Amino acid sequence: MQLIPFSEGDANKLVENSQIDSLLRHLGSLSRALHSFIQTNDLHKSIHLALTEILFSIYTKGRAYIMEYGDGDTLSCTYEVCSKGIAPVRDTLQNIPLSTLRWSTGKIQKLYPILINNLDELPLEAAEEKRYLKKRGARSLIMIPLIIKGVSWGYLGIDIVDNNRMWSLEDYQWLSSITNIISIITKMARINEALDHSEKILRNIYKNLPAGIELYDKDGYLVDINDKELEIFGLADKGEVLGVSLFDNPNIPQEIKEKLRAQEDVNFSISYDFSKVNKYIKTHRKGIINLTTKVTTLYDSQNQFINYLFINIDTTETTNAYTKIQEFENLFLLIGDYANVGFAHFNVLTRDGYAQDTWYRNLGEKEGTPMTEVIGVYSHVHPEDQAVLKIFVRGVREGKATSLRKEVRICRENGEIYMDQY
């Protein structure tokens, strides 16, 4: 609050009117600076307007500017507004080493303002600052720290070039309010920029993730899906399905729906039958796909339930490939039993694997014997052939061998020897 002294004298009335005009002018400039940012959310435009308002309000020629600390202990001018006829100096105030401005840097970083009515007031240790000021024609100046979270990130500076100005307490309070506004809007802009950046990354992941994503509100109504989801379910446009209820989906088992109503996270796999969804969604897909789904319940900062997040993966191709492999192995097993041909799969590094019963019998081993007791041991193989097989296994482990074709002699328990193709 600004207190205006009261007096009935004409001279004092003029002073009072002048103070009132000045106060109203300053309040107006503060209001316009803040209003600009609220209306436009444009940091650069708002700061430029605030600096313009400052020059307009002080009725003198000069420049208003923002100096910011940068990487590597430097100082640079990031904004500048000049009165008509005053040459700009922004380009000459870039990447100034802080080591050359020790006096002013020390003051500003300790959050002290600097008010200089005349350059002769500068102390001897501010010789470099005085040189900079003279070079750009400044006769008076004020520097007020810009502060975020108790740390100065720069300062607001004003150079007066046409006279020596006697800075008043009113000047300092008004300009401090301006710097506070600039710091606030700068912090807000940085937060918005960081949020916008994070949102763009998240949106990019959301859009391009190789899995379908569905987002439902707390009541189970669809509010968003990604492009992969459109592809999986054969949808032309997500606008056609937004608003459908997950609890009306005929392909989701009833027990899963009950868990979702209880706001539980669930994982499940289903055979998604498109013939069942004609009345639920409009799709160009037909037949059945294999779907693996993970549902996560989402909560806000007050731990209030807000969304269901579905992540869907179409595992149809994988399931079909696995089925074909199983069919092949079953067929090979039948052929192997009939033709007395066995096969085995064994990883010499992890020592894991499996084998047909015929393979065990052909090597003279008991069915079900751990493969680690067969591979590399070959207790029923003739000693000469056994040595060859062991060398081969060692070569596979060392990456030096990939295949072996050999007839080996198998020694039965009754002493008989028969030939086996390996």
Key features?
15 strands, 5-stranded antiparallel sheet, 422 residues, alpha+beta, disordered N terminus
- Strand fraction band? 15-25%
Low confidence ranges: 1-17
Average residue-wise pLDDT = 83
- What's the helix count? 10
Question: Globular, elongated, flat, extended or rod-shaped: what is the shape?
Answer: elongated
Number of strands: 15
Q: Helix-strand pattern, N to C?
A: HHEEEHEHEEHEEHHEEEHEEHHEE
Percentage of residues assigned to helices: 25-40%
Q: What order do the strands of the largest sheet run in, or round the barrel if closed?
A: 3-2-1-6-5-4
User: Major sheet: size, sense and barrel closure?
Assistant: 6 strands, antiparallel
Question: Radius of gyration, rounded?
Answer: 41 Å
What structural class do the secondary elements suggest?
Answer: alpha+beta
Give the N-to-C terminal Cα separation.
99 Å
Notes on the structure:
Helix 2 (43-57) packs antiparallel against helix 5. The chain has helices at 10-40, 43-57, 102-109, 127-135, 169-208, 227-233, 254-261, 316-339, 357-362, 383-397; strands at residues 62-70, 74-82, 96-97, 114-116, 140-148, 151-160, 212-217, 222-225, 266-273, 288-299, 305-314, 344-347, 352-355, 407-411, 417-421. The strands form 4 sheets. The chain has a 6-stranded antiparallel sheet, sandwiched between helices. Strands 8-7-11-10-9 form a 5-stranded antiparallel sheet, with helices on both faces. Strands 12-13 form a two-stranded antiparallel ribbon. The N and C termini lie far apart (99 Å). With 422 residues, it is an alpha+beta fold.
